[in-house]
Amino acid sequence: MAYLVLIGTRKGLFTATSDDREAWVLKGPHGLDADGYTAVSEIFATAADPATGQILVAADSPHFGPSVWRSDDLGATWHEPNAAPMSFPQGLPYRPLDYSETAGIDQPESDKTNTVKRVWQLAFGPQEGRVWAGVEPTSLWRSDDGGRTFAFNQALWDHPQHTTWASGGAGPAVHTIVTDAEDPAHVMIAMSSGGIYETRDDGDSWQGVTKGITVDYGPDPEPESGHCIHKVARTVDGTWIAQSHGPVWRTEEPASGWTNVSATLPSDFGFAVVAHPTEPGTAMVWPVQAAMDRFPPDKRIAAWRTGDNGDTWSAWGTGLPTDPYFGNVMRDGACTDGAPDPGWYFGTRCGDVWAAADADGRWHQVAAHLPDVLCVRAIAIP
Protein backbone atom coordinates (compact mmCIF):
# COMPACT_ATOMS: atom_id res chain seq x y z
CA MET A 1 0.00 0.00 0.00
CA ALA A 2 1.17 3.52 -0.81
CA TYR A 3 0.30 6.80 0.87
CA LEU A 4 -0.21 10.25 -0.59
CA VAL A 5 -0.24 13.45 1.46
CA LEU A 6 -1.53 16.77 0.12
CA ILE A 7 0.00 19.76 1.88
CA GLY A 8 -1.55 23.17 1.32
CA THR A 9 0.63 26.13 2.31
CA ARG A 10 0.75 29.90 2.05
CA LYS A 11 2.88 29.44 -1.06
CA GLY A 12 1.48 26.55 -3.00
CA LEU A 13 0.67 22.86 -2.93
CA PHE A 14 3.22 20.23 -1.96
CA THR A 15 2.77 16.46 -2.11
CA ALA A 16 4.53 13.62 -0.33
CA THR A 17 4.46 9.89 -1.06
CA SER A 18 5.60 6.88 0.93
CA ASP A 19 5.32 3.09 1.00
CA ASP A 20 5.78 2.75 4.77
CA ARG A 21 4.83 6.18 6.27
CA GLU A 22 8.40 6.54 7.55
CA ALA A 23 10.48 7.58 4.51
CA TRP A 24 8.82 10.22 2.35
CA VAL A 25 9.43 11.75 -1.09
CA LEU A 26 8.41 15.40 -1.17
CA LYS A 27 7.52 17.31 -4.35
CA GLY A 28 6.46 20.89 -4.97
CA PRO A 29 5.40 23.53 -4.92
CA HIS A 30 3.25 22.36 -7.80
CA GLY A 31 2.37 24.79 -10.55
CA LEU A 32 -1.06 23.45 -11.40
CA ASP A 33 -1.30 25.52 -14.57
CA ALA A 34 1.15 25.70 -17.46
CA ASP A 35 2.63 29.00 -16.32
CA GLY A 36 3.11 27.88 -12.72
CA TYR A 37 1.16 30.76 -11.16
CA THR A 38 -0.58 28.46 -8.68
CA ALA A 39 2.78 27.50 -7.19
CA VAL A 40 2.61 30.71 -5.15
CA SER A 41 -1.11 30.53 -4.40
CA GLU A 42 -2.46 30.10 -0.89
CA ILE A 43 -3.95 26.61 -0.60
CA PHE A 44 -6.60 26.70 2.12
CA ALA A 45 -8.45 23.51 1.18
CA THR A 46 -7.80 20.15 -0.42
CA ALA A 47 -9.90 16.98 -0.60
CA ALA A 48 -9.17 13.47 -1.83
CA ASP A 49 -11.60 10.68 -2.65
CA PRO A 50 -9.89 7.29 -2.21
CA ALA A 51 -12.74 5.53 -4.03
CA THR A 52 -12.09 7.37 -7.29
CA GLY A 53 -8.60 8.83 -6.89
CA GLN A 54 -9.99 12.31 -7.50
CA ILE A 55 -8.29 15.26 -5.84
CA LEU A 56 -9.61 18.79 -5.48
CA VAL A 57 -7.51 21.80 -4.54
CA ALA A 58 -8.77 25.29 -3.73
CA ALA A 59 -6.08 27.71 -4.90
CA ASP A 60 -6.27 31.42 -4.07
CA SER A 61 -4.11 33.04 -6.72
CA PRO A 62 -2.85 36.58 -6.04
CA HIS A 63 -3.20 37.26 -9.78
CA PHE A 64 -6.45 35.56 -10.75
CA GLY A 65 -8.37 35.02 -7.51
CA PRO A 66 -9.82 31.76 -6.18
CA SER A 67 -10.49 28.62 -8.19
CA VAL A 68 -10.93 24.88 -7.66
CA TRP A 69 -8.49 22.62 -9.49
CA ARG A 70 -9.22 18.94 -10.16
CA SER A 71 -7.03 15.91 -10.72
CA ASP A 72 -8.48 12.55 -11.74
CA ASP A 73 -5.15 10.70 -11.58
CA LEU A 74 -3.83 11.36 -8.06
CA GLY A 75 -2.14 14.60 -9.01
CA ALA A 76 -0.35 13.57 -12.21
CA THR A 77 -2.35 16.11 -14.23
CA TRP A 78 -4.58 19.01 -13.23
CA HIS A 79 -7.62 20.73 -14.71
CA GLU A 80 -9.21 24.09 -13.97
CA PRO A 81 -12.80 24.97 -14.96
CA ASN A 82 -13.12 27.22 -18.00
CA ALA A 83 -15.23 29.64 -15.96
CA ALA A 84 -15.30 30.55 -12.27
CA PRO A 85 -16.80 27.52 -10.50
CA MET A 86 -18.66 29.75 -8.02
CA SER A 87 -20.45 33.03 -8.56
CA PHE A 88 -22.98 34.67 -6.27
CA PRO A 89 -26.45 35.22 -7.76
CA GLN A 90 -27.15 38.68 -9.12
CA GLY A 91 -29.22 40.92 -6.86
CA LEU A 92 -28.22 39.13 -3.67
CA PRO A 93 -28.14 41.56 -0.70
CA TYR A 94 -24.58 42.56 0.12
CA ARG A 95 -22.84 41.14 3.20
CA PRO A 96 -19.71 42.73 4.73
CA LEU A 97 -16.51 40.71 4.53
CA ASP A 98 -14.80 41.99 7.64
CA TYR A 99 -15.03 44.08 10.77
CA SER A 100 -13.99 47.29 9.00
CA GLU A 101 -17.42 47.68 7.47
CA THR A 102 -19.37 46.64 10.55
CA ALA A 103 -17.23 49.07 12.55
CA GLY A 104 -18.48 51.93 10.42
CA ILE A 105 -15.55 52.45 8.08
CA ASP A 106 -17.00 53.65 4.82
CA GLN A 107 -16.65 51.40 1.79
CA PRO A 108 -17.23 52.61 -1.78
CA GLU A 109 -20.60 51.51 -3.10
CA SER A 110 -18.86 50.06 -6.15
CA ASP A 111 -17.02 47.61 -3.85
CA LYS A 112 -20.21 46.35 -2.22
CA THR A 113 -20.66 43.27 -4.36
CA ASN A 114 -20.74 39.75 -2.98
CA THR A 115 -17.60 38.08 -4.27
CA VAL A 116 -16.06 34.70 -3.50
CA LYS A 117 -12.92 35.64 -1.63
CA ARG A 118 -11.63 32.21 -0.67
CA VAL A 119 -12.63 28.54 -0.53
CA TRP A 120 -11.97 27.28 3.00
CA GLN A 121 -13.27 23.72 2.81
CA LEU A 122 -13.91 20.98 0.26
CA ALA A 123 -15.66 17.74 1.23
CA PHE A 124 -16.78 14.82 -0.90
CA GLY A 125 -20.28 13.61 -0.13
CA PRO A 126 -21.43 9.99 -0.23
CA GLN A 127 -23.47 10.67 -3.39
CA GLU A 128 -21.67 10.13 -6.69
CA GLY A 129 -20.22 13.43 -7.92
CA ARG A 130 -21.20 15.34 -4.76
CA VAL A 131 -18.79 17.91 -3.38
CA TRP A 132 -19.56 20.55 -0.75
CA ALA A 133 -17.55 23.77 -0.52
CA GLY A 134 -17.34 26.18 2.39
CA VAL A 135 -16.60 29.72 1.27
CA GLU A 136 -15.70 33.20 2.48
CA PRO A 137 -17.92 35.24 2.80
CA THR A 138 -19.92 32.84 4.96
CA SER A 139 -21.67 30.62 2.44
CA LEU A 140 -22.06 27.02 1.35
CA TRP A 141 -21.97 25.64 -2.18
CA ARG A 142 -22.76 22.23 -3.68
CA SER A 143 -21.43 20.45 -6.75
CA ASP A 144 -22.98 17.39 -8.33
CA ASP A 145 -20.43 17.08 -11.13
CA GLY A 146 -17.30 16.32 -9.14
CA GLY A 147 -16.33 19.90 -8.40
CA ARG A 148 -16.51 21.36 -11.89
CA THR A 149 -19.41 23.71 -11.07
CA PHE A 150 -21.04 24.71 -7.80
CA ALA A 151 -24.55 25.87 -6.88
CA PHE A 152 -25.12 28.47 -4.15
CA ASN A 153 -27.02 27.28 -1.06
CA GLN A 154 -29.64 29.97 -0.55
CA ALA A 155 -31.15 28.40 2.58
CA LEU A 156 -28.02 28.89 4.70
CA TRP A 157 -27.47 32.41 3.40
CA ASP A 158 -31.04 33.35 4.35
CA HIS A 159 -30.90 31.80 7.84
CA PRO A 160 -32.42 34.29 10.32
CA GLN A 161 -29.38 33.99 12.61
CA HIS A 162 -26.97 35.25 9.95
CA THR A 163 -26.95 38.69 11.58
CA THR A 164 -25.04 37.14 14.52
CA TRP A 165 -22.29 35.68 12.31
CA ALA A 166 -19.09 37.71 12.58
CA SER A 167 -15.82 37.43 10.71
CA GLY A 168 -13.65 35.84 13.38
CA GLY A 169 -9.90 36.35 13.41
CA ALA A 170 -9.33 34.94 9.92
CA GLY A 171 -12.49 35.93 8.08
CA PRO A 172 -16.20 35.07 7.82
CA ALA A 173 -16.32 31.58 6.32
CA VAL A 174 -17.78 28.11 6.44
CA HIS A 175 -14.58 26.25 7.33
CA THR A 176 -15.85 22.79 8.34
CA ILE A 177 -18.10 20.35 6.48
CA VAL A 178 -18.82 16.83 7.79
CA THR A 179 -20.89 14.53 5.59
CA ASP A 180 -22.69 11.36 6.72
CA ALA A 181 -22.25 8.14 4.73
CA GLU A 182 -25.19 6.52 6.54
CA ASP A 183 -27.54 9.44 5.85
CA PRO A 184 -26.52 11.33 2.69
CA ALA A 185 -29.04 14.12 3.37
CA HIS A 186 -27.34 14.89 6.71
CA VAL A 187 -24.51 17.44 6.67
CA MET A 188 -22.87 19.34 9.55
CA ILE A 189 -21.05 22.64 9.04
CA ALA A 190 -19.17 25.03 11.32
CA MET A 191 -17.99 28.59 10.93
CA SER A 192 -15.76 31.03 12.78
CA SER A 193 -17.80 33.33 14.99
CA GLY A 194 -20.93 31.75 13.54
CA GLY A 195 -21.60 28.43 15.24
CA ILE A 196 -22.54 24.91 14.18
CA TYR A 197 -25.44 24.11 11.86
CA GLU A 198 -26.83 20.89 10.44
CA THR A 199 -29.21 19.91 7.68
CA ARG A 200 -31.16 16.68 7.45
CA ASP A 201 -32.78 17.49 4.12
CA ASP A 202 -29.70 17.89 1.90
CA GLY A 203 -29.36 21.63 2.49
CA ASP A 204 -32.97 22.74 2.07
CA SER A 205 -33.03 23.94 5.68
CA TRP A 206 -30.50 24.46 8.48
CA GLN A 207 -30.75 24.31 12.27
CA GLY A 208 -28.29 25.77 14.76
CA VAL A 209 -26.96 23.11 17.15
CA THR A 210 -24.79 24.84 19.76
CA LYS A 211 -26.95 24.38 22.86
CA GLY A 212 -24.74 24.14 25.96
CA ILE A 213 -21.61 25.61 24.36
CA THR A 214 -20.56 28.58 26.49
CA VAL A 215 -18.32 31.51 25.59
CA ASP A 216 -16.18 33.98 27.54
CA TYR A 217 -15.74 36.54 24.77
CA GLY A 218 -19.22 38.06 24.65
CA PRO A 219 -21.88 39.55 26.93
CA ASP A 220 -24.03 36.41 26.82
CA PRO A 221 -22.18 33.32 28.15
CA GLU A 222 -24.52 30.97 26.28
CA PRO A 223 -25.68 32.70 23.11
CA GLU A 224 -28.11 31.07 20.71
CA SER A 225 -25.69 31.54 17.82
CA GLY A 226 -22.48 33.30 16.85
CA HIS A 227 -20.09 30.91 18.64
CA CYS A 228 -16.48 30.84 17.48
CA ILE A 229 -16.09 27.19 16.50
CA HIS A 230 -12.69 26.09 15.23
CA LYS A 231 -13.37 22.53 14.04
CA VAL A 232 -15.84 19.65 14.37
CA ALA A 233 -15.29 15.91 13.83
CA ARG A 234 -17.46 12.82 14.22
CA THR A 235 -16.14 9.59 15.72
CA VAL A 236 -17.05 6.27 14.16
CA ASP A 237 -19.60 5.57 16.93
CA GLY A 238 -21.51 8.74 16.06
CA THR A 239 -20.19 11.06 18.77
CA TRP A 240 -19.40 14.65 17.76
CA ILE A 241 -16.34 16.44 19.14
CA ALA A 242 -15.93 20.18 18.64
CA GLN A 243 -12.88 22.33 19.30
CA SER A 244 -14.09 25.83 20.03
CA HIS A 245 -12.38 29.11 20.87
CA GLY A 246 -12.05 27.67 24.33
CA PRO A 247 -13.08 24.20 25.50
CA VAL A 248 -13.40 20.95 23.59
CA TRP A 249 -17.03 19.79 23.55
CA ARG A 250 -18.83 16.48 23.00
CA THR A 251 -22.33 15.39 22.11
CA GLU A 252 -24.12 12.27 20.91
CA GLU A 253 -27.00 14.36 19.59
CA PRO A 254 -26.05 17.94 18.60
CA ALA A 255 -29.56 19.33 18.94
CA SER A 256 -29.73 18.12 22.57
CA GLY A 257 -26.65 19.95 23.84
CA TRP A 258 -22.89 19.71 24.33
CA THR A 259 -20.65 18.78 27.29
CA ASN A 260 -17.23 20.25 28.09
CA VAL A 261 -14.56 17.51 27.87
CA SER A 262 -11.38 19.55 28.31
CA ALA A 263 -10.57 18.72 31.94
CA THR A 264 -7.49 16.57 31.26
CA LEU A 265 -6.03 18.65 28.41
CA PRO A 266 -3.05 20.98 29.02
CA SER A 267 -5.05 23.78 27.38
CA ASP A 268 -8.68 23.89 26.36
CA PHE A 269 -7.85 26.11 23.37
CA GLY A 270 -6.89 24.75 19.97
CA PHE A 271 -7.87 24.53 16.33
CA ALA A 272 -7.75 21.00 14.88
CA VAL A 273 -9.67 17.87 15.88
CA VAL A 274 -9.55 14.59 13.94
CA ALA A 275 -11.56 11.41 14.54
CA HIS A 276 -10.22 7.88 14.18
CA PRO A 277 -11.76 6.29 11.05
CA THR A 278 -12.53 2.89 12.63
CA GLU A 279 -11.97 2.96 16.41
CA PRO A 280 -15.02 4.09 18.45
CA GLY A 281 -14.59 7.01 20.82
CA THR A 282 -11.13 7.88 19.50
CA ALA A 283 -10.01 11.31 18.36
CA MET A 284 -6.98 13.59 18.48
CA VAL A 285 -6.45 17.29 19.18
CA TRP A 286 -3.42 19.61 19.18
CA PRO A 287 -3.75 22.02 22.14
CA VAL A 288 -2.62 25.61 21.82
CA GLN A 289 -2.08 28.20 24.52
CA ALA A 290 -5.02 30.56 24.70
CA ALA A 291 -2.62 33.51 24.95
CA MET A 292 -2.29 35.53 21.79
CA ASP A 293 1.11 34.04 20.96
CA ARG A 294 -0.71 30.79 20.06
CA PHE A 295 2.26 28.59 20.95
CA PRO A 296 1.88 24.94 22.03
CA PRO A 297 1.64 24.47 25.83
CA ASP A 298 5.09 24.68 27.43
CA LYS A 299 6.43 25.37 23.90
CA ARG A 300 6.37 21.63 23.12
CA ILE A 301 4.49 20.28 20.12
CA ALA A 302 2.29 17.31 21.01
CA ALA A 303 -0.81 15.44 19.87
CA TRP A 304 -3.36 14.54 22.55
CA ARG A 305 -5.60 11.52 22.11
CA THR A 306 -8.80 10.24 23.67
CA GLY A 307 -10.20 6.72 23.46
CA ASP A 308 -13.33 7.46 25.48
CA ASN A 309 -14.92 10.34 23.59
CA GLY A 310 -13.10 12.99 25.57
CA ASP A 311 -13.56 11.76 29.15
CA THR A 312 -9.76 11.54 29.33
CA TRP A 313 -6.92 12.75 27.11
CA SER A 314 -3.21 11.92 27.06
CA ALA A 315 -0.21 12.90 24.95
CA TRP A 316 0.23 10.35 22.17
CA GLY A 317 3.18 9.22 20.15
CA THR A 318 6.94 9.53 20.29
CA GLY A 319 9.46 11.10 17.97
CA LEU A 320 8.32 14.73 18.03
CA PRO A 321 10.83 17.50 18.90
CA THR A 322 11.56 17.84 22.61
CA ASP A 323 13.22 21.23 22.29
CA PRO A 324 11.13 24.43 22.32
CA TYR A 325 8.72 24.55 19.38
CA PHE A 326 6.70 27.57 18.33
CA GLY A 327 4.38 26.42 15.55
CA ASN A 328 0.81 25.39 16.16
CA VAL A 329 -1.56 23.26 14.05
CA MET A 330 -4.29 25.08 12.12
CA ARG A 331 -7.88 23.82 11.94
CA ASP A 332 -7.38 21.88 8.69
CA GLY A 333 -3.76 21.03 9.36
CA ALA A 334 -4.42 17.47 10.55
CA CYS A 335 -6.09 14.32 9.21
CA THR A 336 -5.95 10.52 8.91
CA ASP A 337 -5.47 8.50 5.74
CA GLY A 338 -8.29 6.00 6.36
CA ALA A 339 -6.10 2.90 6.00
CA PRO A 340 -6.91 -0.29 7.97
CA ASP A 341 -4.02 0.70 10.25
CA PRO A 342 -4.67 4.41 9.83
CA GLY A 343 -1.97 7.02 9.70
CA TRP A 344 -2.26 10.33 11.53
CA TYR A 345 -0.84 13.49 9.96
CA PHE A 346 -0.37 17.10 10.97
CA GLY A 347 1.42 20.19 9.73
CA THR A 348 2.47 23.30 11.61
CA ARG A 349 2.91 26.99 11.05
CA CYS A 350 6.67 26.38 11.20
CA GLY A 351 6.34 24.42 7.94
CA ASP A 352 6.86 20.94 9.37
CA VAL A 353 4.65 17.93 8.58
CA TRP A 354 4.54 14.73 10.64
CA ALA A 355 3.04 11.25 10.17
CA ALA A 356 2.49 8.28 12.50
CA ALA A 357 0.92 4.88 11.94
CA ASP A 358 -1.75 4.20 14.55
CA ALA A 359 -0.39 0.83 15.63
CA ASP A 360 3.20 2.10 15.82
CA GLY A 361 2.65 5.43 17.55
CA ARG A 362 5.91 6.98 16.40
CA TRP A 363 5.96 10.27 14.53
CA HIS A 364 8.13 10.54 11.41
CA GLN A 365 8.88 13.81 9.65
CA VAL A 366 7.28 14.10 6.23
CA ALA A 367 8.60 17.58 5.42
CA ALA A 368 10.44 20.44 7.10
CA HIS A 369 10.77 24.19 6.56
CA LEU A 370 7.85 24.52 4.16
CA PRO A 371 5.82 27.72 4.06
CA ASP A 372 3.09 28.09 6.69
CA VAL A 373 1.03 24.86 6.50
CA LEU A 374 -2.70 25.60 6.15
CA CYS A 375 -4.19 22.19 5.37
CA VAL A 376 -3.16 18.54 5.22
CA ARG A 377 -5.08 15.66 3.61
CA ALA A 378 -3.92 12.07 3.08
CA ILE A 379 -5.17 8.91 1.41
CA ALA A 380 -4.01 5.30 1.29
CA ILE A 381 -3.63 3.92 -2.23
CA PRO A 382 -4.04 0.13 -2.61
TrEMBL record:
Gene3D superfamilies: YVTN repeat-like/Quinoprotein amine dehydrogenase. InterPro entries: WD40/YVTN_repeat-like_dom_sf (IPR015943), Xyloglucanase_GH74 (IPR052025). It comes from the Bacteria. GO terms for biological process: xyloglucan metabolic process. This is Exo-alpha-sialidase.
